[in-house]
Amino acid sequence: MDQYTLNLLIVGASFALYIGIAIWSRAGSTAEFYAANRGVNPVMNGMATAADWMSAASFISMAGLIAGVGYINSTYLMGWTGGYVLLALLLAPYLRKFGKYTVPQFIGDRFYSQTARLVAVVCLIIISITYVIGQMTGAGVAFSRFLEVEGSTGLWIASAVVFVYAVLGGMKGITYTQVAQYVVLIIAYSIPAIFISMQLTGNPLPWLGLFSTHTESGLPLLQKLDQVVTDLGFNAYTAQGSMLNMTLFTLSLMIGTAGLPHVIIRFFTVPKVADARWSAGWALVFIALLYLTAPAVGAMARLNIINTIFPGGPQAEAVLYDDRPDWMRNWEVTGLLKFEDKNGDGRIQYYNDAAAGFAETAASRGWSGNELTINNDILVLANPEIAQLPGWVIGLIAAGGLAAALSTAAGLLLAISSAISHDLIKDWLKPGISEAGELMTARVAMAGAILVATLLGLNPPGFAAQTVALAFGLAAASIFPALMMGIFSKRINAAGATIGMLVGLTVTCLYLFTYLGWFFIPGTNMLENVAANYLFGIPPTAFGPIGALLNFGAAYVISAMTEAPPRHVQELVDSVRVPRGAGAATSH
Questions:
Q1: Least buried of 68, 114, 252, 547, by fewest C-beta within 10 Å?
Q2: Which topology term describes how it sits in the membrane (predicted)?
Q3: Are the C-beta atoms of residues 165 and 174 closer than 8 Å to each other?
């Protein structure tokens, strides 16, 4: 059986499973659509949360970013994992005890203001749309290679699949679909990693293989990798970068994680407050299975690529372009891997042509510039082909990549539709709407969100993980401070919270748009996205904590200058934080 047919069978079977689950668990009420009727087991919810969380950025792009840069990009791992600890300890149980369906609903009630709620809805939509662009980007990458279609066609196929199971099932259908997607993606990620770790180190556990001995050279794997990348003018794989930017970026991902609306609403689906903590704990366990493996996948992929191009080592001749392996030919078709023979010798020169210290060495070897461009988003998907693994493994990783992208996209789209139908329509514009009307509105809103996300995903502002990192910065600057102050400060009032969110969101958006274009439209940026133009050297992806500080500062200053919240609101804050009655969470 040829590879294309095998890919179709495996991916098609996974899609049939997701759609079948959606039909089986179709939401029949708003309680089922928004919160799965609050009846999800904590272990199941933890698995669904992990799938919701481990998006295309985690599955497809994160290991690629680590492979391309090395230790510096381990900030993605540290920030995303640390953020879940913050979420479990500081937000999840309190928000569940409050007993509402959506994040804007909590903000509106806690700050006794429809204006605050409306601002929260705007923040949520901007964050979620930015995030879902990254998912659509990842889905397009996976489809373009494994189903041999254009990236834009892949986006529309992914949109159609998400539309069916998300619009039909709501939170109830999405939850059980995400459980299935987690099983698919973790198996798909682990099996190639185990094979490759065995090939390179003899150790079947990738996270241990990363620190094991490279079988062929007898050197520790990371030492061998440092050696080959520095021989080609790249920075050492284990080198550290700017501690300020690493700290800010890690913090942005951490507090952004704790403020992501589509993750928070998952904790509204469990029966009790205690279950919210257990769900977060189980989610961390399920996430760790992939996150422990990702650094090994990145390092081993980088080494395999260099060995492919320089089969005799970096000091020897590079491979002839006409003799390039099949995996390179396959990915060239997608446009995500490109070759340009700059010196006309017919060989693939791959090195860091931006390194001034390597220019003399390159010139002595007759090299006229780097000739191979590899999109970071392809490394995980190409890994089985690079390592010449069996065809069924290649098909499996295609299904896993798509599962990761689609699971998170569904969660984001549900957050958007809930905010529009529940927070805008039912509780503000049309309070008398029937339950059937509200359910229909939610489905129409989700369909509209899918369309907008797909159109924006055709021209993303960066790799999948980079695009997702922007959404984390927006969540860190807008939603997270409002939630923290709403839970832990009785003094913050409606004016303070509203202005704080507006300041954090506006400043962060302006900073992002300055370098990445207005609303991420290519060519509309005011400054070139290079380090020399950054304010204090802070890149757009690390600006979230600055926006958060401005949010906190504005909220406290305005609240100090205006009247304290009403007594019943202060008592509400106490009732949410105090453990009394925690076993019986408030119903909607």
A1: 114
A2: Multi-pass membrane protein
A3: yes
Q: What angle do CA 285, 377, 475 make, to 5 degrees?
A: 60
Cβ neighbours around 518 below 10 Å, total? 14
Which residues on neighbouring strands pair with residue 412, listed in sequence order? none
Q: What is the mean pLDDT of residues 295-320?
A: 90
Helices 391-418, 114-146: axis angle to 10 degrees equals: 160
Q: Cα separation of 390 and 415, whole Å?
A: 39
How large is the angle between the packed helices 464-477 and 544-561, nearest 10 degrees? 10
C-alpha 389/C-alpha 190 separation (Å) is: 13
Contact 61, 296 (CB under 8 A): no
pLDDT in tens, 2-58: 778 888 888 888 878 877 877 776 655 555 555 555 667 788 888 888 877 777 677
200 pLDDT exceeds 90?
yes
In this structure, are residues 286 and 113 in contact, taking their beta carbons and an 8 Å threshold?
no
Q: Is 119 exposed, middle or buried (0-12, 13-18, 19+ CB in 10 A)?
A: buried
Asked if 510 contacts 220 with a C-beta cutoff of 8 angstroms, the reply is no
Rg of the chain's alpha carbons, rounded to an integer? 24
CB 104 within 8 A of CB 284: no
DSSP annotation of 204: S
Range 3-306+387-458 classified under CATH 1.10.287.950? no
Coil, strand or helix at 216:
coil
114 in helix, strand or coil? helix
Please answer whether residues 375 and 337 qualify as being in contact, where contact means their C-beta atoms are separated by less than 8 angstroms: yes
Report how far residue 171's alpha carbon sits from residue 153's, in angstroms, rounded to the nearest whole number: 27
In terms of DSSP bridges, do strands 337-339 and 372-374 run parallel, antiparallel, or are they unpaired?
antiparallel
- Enumerate residues 6+ apart whose C-beta is below 8 A from 243: none
Position 519: which residue type? F
Give the DSSP letter string of 458-488.
TS-SSSHHHHHHHHHHHHHHTHHHHHHHHHH
Tell me the pLDDT tens digit for each residue of 357-409.
898 899 999 999 999 998 887 888 888 888 888 888 888 888 887 777 777 77
What's the pTM value of the predicted model, to 2 decimals? 0.76
Tens of pLDDT, residues 443-463: 888 888 888 878 877 776 555
What residues are paired with 220 via a beta bridge? 213
Nearest to 167, CA basis, from 379, 416, 375: 416
The SS3 of residue 374 is strand
Exposed (0-12), middle (13-18) or buried (19+): which is 531, by Cβ within 10 Å? exposed
pLDDT category of residue 551 using cuts at 50, 70 and 90 = very high
Sketch the domain layout of the chain as residue ranges: 3-306+387-458, 317-369
pLDDT band with cut points at 50, 70 and 90 for residue 581 = very low
At residue 408's C-alpha, the angle toward residues 6 and 476, to 5°, is 145
Q: Which helix (H) or strand (E) holds 300?
A: helix 294-309
In sequence order, the 6+-apart residues with CB closer than 8 A to the CB of 395 are 3, 6, 7, 9, 10, 11, 146
Q: How far apart are the first and last CA of the chain?
A: 54
Q: How far apart are CA 12 and CA 17, in angstroms?
A: 9
